Amino acid sequence: MKDKMKTLADSLGLESVVDMATGYGSLSYFMDDKNEAKRLKDFLTREFKRVRLIPLNKLGGDTANWVVAADMHGGK
């Protein structure tokens, strides 16, 4: 799945992706640039039921400034 996620990031021209993670029916992109994170969120909203843009604190020890998390099945 990470190969597909990397291909998507490359096709969208996302340069600030620090890490990617997958789960059962979900995926997350850890990013540094807010504008790229918003662009990815807008793109994923077309296909996934629930997409969130979550601020992180890189200066406080997190690996990135933003995480874009998407769930295929929705949920709360």
Tell me what you see in this structure.
The protein is an alpha+beta fold. It is 29% helix and 33% strand. The chain has helices at 2-11, 34-45, and strands at residues 17-23, 26-31, 50-55, 66-71. The termini are far apart.
Task: Break the fold down into its secondary structure elements and pairings.
Elements: H1 2-11, E1 17-23, E2 26-31, H2 34-45, E3 50-55, E4 66-71
Antiparallel strand pairs: 1-2, 2-4, 3-4
How would you summarize this macromolecular structure in one to three sentences?
29% of the residues lie in helices and 33% in strands.
Could you state the order of secondary-structure elements as H and E?
HEEHEE
Task: Tell me the β content.
Answer: 25-35%
Neighbour order of strands in the largest sheet: 1-2-4-3
Shape: globular
**Helix-residue proportion:** 25-40%
Low-confidence stretches: none
Number of strands: 4
**End-to-end distance, in Å?**
24 Å
Q: Give the mean pLDDT.
A: 93
For this entry, give a set of tags.
76 residues; 4-stranded antiparallel β-sheet; globular; 2 helices
